[in-house]
């Protein structure tokens, strides 16, 4: 059933597309990080004309499947003259979808900054912008880092969805190999193993980071 | 230090009685400055503050003269903090006006009419006011030196070297010159509060608000903070509003003591008048209750009054 020598023979082919998967992951993550911040800020905006539409759109994106959003980006937008490569559509789709999650992470981070920090900034006559940049954001980012790391891993594991828009990533490649040789078991299993080998250590790393941050926080808070 | 020469004369005057009744006037009445009289650094006029339907301050009139040290005492919930927060622009008055150094704080003039102040106006006037909070509110991600220099660099656009030199001098005054590279979390409560005082002082406000700055501290750390405030007060140039439950401290430092209850200033006078000869029944019972509590926990802050400030 399982053919070791065949399995070994297809490993290089699979490894070759790992960079593509990683580019899609990190590209999407970067988009999500950048886009998440304005969404978080807009949702906190005092004016309902800003906060409501943004909240509504973000909820919509978050509660519909990534697959459908990818299909819209890749297959529907060309009807309106916007043609995206599979990689671009993949990065945008992943990024937009997860930006709505990261926005929530940011929001939690921002809200974890005590009211007294805003008041002290005001008493020292810092402007709004200075308060955000020098006081609030530097304090809200560190506690979100482990959560962000987890989302990075989740996005990595989500990349097989991009096979639906013809991006030649791990799953697409495995399926292609399978259809050539009519042997799917080895290829698909190896894809699983590659994901495991990459996500598991990353997960450990994130947990280490989390412990490190917690310990630092505690040593800073003690006394 | 503040470059406000007329304030210096004022603080020497022995007369610190409350404003005479005939000086009270409504906010709309024109100012008839016939008598040569020193302009208050802060002037509350008809200040009312409600949170929802809950009225916290009720038509407060209060003048604070340049360099004057005013202590605010009164039961919990009587509106002391709110009075200070309105001046620090942390809370907006429901009605009434506040003048700072002759200029409206919450209003500005547009075509001869008073309209609500915009952020730019608030920013300008707010520079004359400083505040120290009960819970310090230091910036935890900055070391002590940066906590003190940050606003000088950002707000006053001071070169970094000059800001650091000033910060170091100020930290030395509060006895923390050896802690400049530490982070707030590495300091004791008393040290944190002294940093917070230094941070506010370097901005050279004309009036500084202290809101129960020792009530979050362990009793043995209260003295070092009060000593620092006394030293600052002794310089005389800066007006102070001190909200405190430390009656001995209020008596020592204040030119005038205000007793608030139910959102009104019920009684005011020199420390002697307030503590020795309280007239209103409410103040009398407040002081009695207070002394009773003090006797219970046997002198919270006594003893440590002299030791600290220079370690
Ligand atoms: N942001 C707010 N929202 C609603 N109510 C408030 C708010 N701030 C203060 N209050 C209420 O206003 C009243 C006066 O509060 P304030 O803090 O000014 O009193 P205080 O004299 O400083 O009391 P304490 O001695 O306990 O500090 C209290 O009843 C308080 O609950
Ligand atoms: Mg209070």
From TrEMBL, chain A:
Top-rank lineage group of the source organism: Bacteria
Pfam families on file: BPD_transp_1 (PF00528)
Transmembrane segments: 20-42, 187-206
GO cellular component: ATP-binding cassette (ABC) transporter complex
InterPro entries per the UniProt record, alphabetical: AA_ABC_transptr_permease_3TM, ArtM/GltK/GlnP/TcyL/YhdX-like, Ectoine_EhuD, MetI-like, MetI-like_sf
One biological process term in Gene Ontology: amino acid transport
Keyword annotations from UniProtKB, A to Z: Amino-acid transport, Cell membrane, Membrane, Transmembrane, Transmembrane helix, Transport
Coiled-coil residue spans: none
Gene Ontology MF term list: transmembrane transporter activity
Start and end residues of each ABC transmembrane type-1 domain: 18-206
Localisation: Cell membrane
Topology within the bilayer: Multi-pass membrane protein
Family label: Belongs to the binding-protein-dependent transport system permease family.
Protein name (Swiss-Prot/TrEMBL): Ectoine/hydroxyectoine ABC transporter permease subunit EhuD
